[in-house]
Backbone:
């Protein structure tokens, strides 16, 4: 008996929310087998599950372990669905270069922001961790990224963020990229002081921030 | 130093008796900023017990605060168990590679000998030297990374965090090794006559749920605290970030003093557990102590004191977490100055409307 589309997408969402990797994979395989739309399955299924997990995280019902396992389930479903995706749909929203600034290897926060941005349809270039300021600038220019997202957990590496902004100024390409910052010691005041375009305290706020900033950039 | 009438131990003894004192105890939690006081590189302290002691003694003499804690980074125990640590020339060390990468290798781990392995001997030497130099006038403690947090460094944080859901048994085995490591280190610290001080950042409710804390962190924390109590010393427990959901458990684990970060509210802590534990905190270490002006430091101190000076079990004015290495000396001075102005019992005028 065929299951209506909405139901299987809802089940995918539940499987991600419940951190059930196996069930997410088998549902994703069923989507492929039945030739349902992969983008919808990602958007209404996997992303929806991650968004609900993010809501529970904001309400302090889910914590980082839960979010990581939801992400594992989401990524395993994505592996199944990606080959069946029409990529234009995921690309139209914007490009972001993201990384942890030089001197710091704490990347859980960066990974969470990356996951939330990807699941919201953004194209994310993850440079990794311990990244020199100039590398962010060069990669953003090369990729044509509208947004440069910088993360650090350590106070010692905060100046690397300011350095990124200074390089953009020096190269006279400041207006091409919006710089956003986040992480343990970072504050809105700090973002303002170094001339960044925005600060987000959580991964879901980062998504809202990016959407707001992209609204202000001509395509 | 000359600005205060009482030495820190005299002040604390009088404060504990409920007598009037010159000012509230104040501990800007000095970290690797101690290196700046003697013009040393941060990396030198870690591998040189004599220099580490010299830095903390000089920093104490320079600022006149009420507690010395010998600390370089969170990784000294994990390193002595086999993890690799990266040591930048002039910044705080950080974890480069965990001791193992696979659950199958847990059996290869054994608790290190603090008198021999890694850089634990240097930590112990520093504690011994600090105690000898100034232990007669100021409390001296030695930082111990508590079991749950140290266990995450043994197999890698992300890996470990997944295992809390996927393989609870492996997590318990890692925590048990980590506890044994903590017990051995605490034993060596107690043998010197110094007080072990516990740091447990990964147990923060910013990271794990209260349920995960109760299952994997609390039992080991309690055993370590019981051991330190049996050695005749009180325990200060620091957990970074949000902690309000676990304050009761932190007190249940036996902590005598909770060090509260700036993501948590001191007044709420007072209401929740103030009749069970002393509180310390929570001047923001980064936004105020590192980046703020002296005026902002004073205002933050006034706010903290206004919230919690009347905590039933007492209050120590402190930074919410270890001070960043480059915290300006002038801001540390401003913290002590503000506490002096307020005095004790608190001078309501000096406090202004810190509320």
Residues:
């Amino acid at each position: 008996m065929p299951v209506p589309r909405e139901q299987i997408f809802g089940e995918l969402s539940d499987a991600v929310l419940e951190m059930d990797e196996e069930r997410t994979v088998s549902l994703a395989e069923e989507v492929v087998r039945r030739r349902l739309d992969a983008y919808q399955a990602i958007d209404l299924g996997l992303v929806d599950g991650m968004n609900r997990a993010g809501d529970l995280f904001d309400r302090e019902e889910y914590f980082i372990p839960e979010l990581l396992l939801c992400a594992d389930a989401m990524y395993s479903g994505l592996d199944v669905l990606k080959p069946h995706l029409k990529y234009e749909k995921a690309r139209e929203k914007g490009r972001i270069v993201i990384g942890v600034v030089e001197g710091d290897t704490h990347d859980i926060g960066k990974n969470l922001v990356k996951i939330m941005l990807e699941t919201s349809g953004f194209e994310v270039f993850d440079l990794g961790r311990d990244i020199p300021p100039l590398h962010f600038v060069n990669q953003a220019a090369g990729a044509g990224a509208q947004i440069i997202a910088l993360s650090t957990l350590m106070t010692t590496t905060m100046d690397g963020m300011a350095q990124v902004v200074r390089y953009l100024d020096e190269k006279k390409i400041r207006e091409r990229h919006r710089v956003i910052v986040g992480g343990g010691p970072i504050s809105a005041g700090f973002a303002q002081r170094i001339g960044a375009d925005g600060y987000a305290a959580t991964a879901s706020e980062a998504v809202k921030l990016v959407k707001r900033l992209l609204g202000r950039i001509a395509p | 130093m000359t600005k205060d009438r009482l030495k820190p131990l005299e002040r604390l003894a009088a404060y504990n008796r409920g007598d009037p004192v010159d000012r509230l105890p104040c501990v800007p939690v000095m970290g690797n900023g101690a290196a700046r006081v003697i013009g040393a590189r941060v990396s030198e302290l870690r591998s040189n017990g004599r220099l580490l002691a010299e830095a903390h003694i000089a920093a104490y003499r320079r600022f006149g605060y009420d507690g010395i804690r010998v600390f370089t980074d969170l990784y000294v125990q994990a390193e002595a168990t086999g993890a690799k640590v990266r040591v930048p020339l002039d910044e705080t060390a950080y974890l480069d590679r965990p001791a193992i990468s696979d659950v199958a290798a847990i059996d290869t781990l054994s608790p290190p000998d603090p008198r021999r392995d890694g850089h634990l001997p240097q930590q112990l030497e520093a504690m011994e030297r600090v105690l000898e130099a100034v232990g007669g006038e100021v409390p001296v403690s030695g930082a111990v990374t508590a079991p749950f947090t140290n266990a995450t460094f043994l197999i890698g944080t992300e890996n470990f965090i997944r295992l809390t859901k996927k393989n609870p048994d492996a997590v318990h085995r890692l925590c048990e090794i980590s506890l044994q490591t903590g017990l051995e280190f605490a034993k060596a610290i107690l043998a010197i006559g110094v007080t072990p001080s516990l740091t447990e950042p990964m147990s923060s409710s910013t990271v794990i749920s209260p349920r995960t804390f109760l299952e994997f962190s609390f039992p080991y924390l309690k055993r370590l605290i019981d051991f330190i109590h049996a050695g005749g010393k009180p325990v200060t427990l620091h957990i970074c970030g949000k902690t309000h959901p676990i304050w009761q458990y932190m007190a249940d684990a036996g902590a005598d003093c909770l060090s509260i970060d700036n993501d948590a509210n001191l007044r709420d802590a007072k209401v929740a557990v103030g009749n069970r534990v002393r509180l310390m905190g929570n001047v923001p270490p980064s936004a105020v102590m590192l980046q703020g002006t002296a005026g902002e430091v004073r205002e933050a101190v006034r706010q903290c004191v206004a919230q919690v000076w009347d905590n039933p079990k007492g209050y120590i004015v402190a930074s919410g977490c270890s001070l960043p290495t480059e915290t300006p000396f002038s801001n540390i001075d401003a913290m002590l100055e503000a506490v002096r102005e307020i005095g004790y019992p608190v001078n309501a005028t000096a406090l202004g409307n810190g509320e």
Summary: Residues 168-192 of chain B form the longest helix (25 residues). Chain B has 16 helices and ten strands. The longest strand of chain B covers residues 140-145.
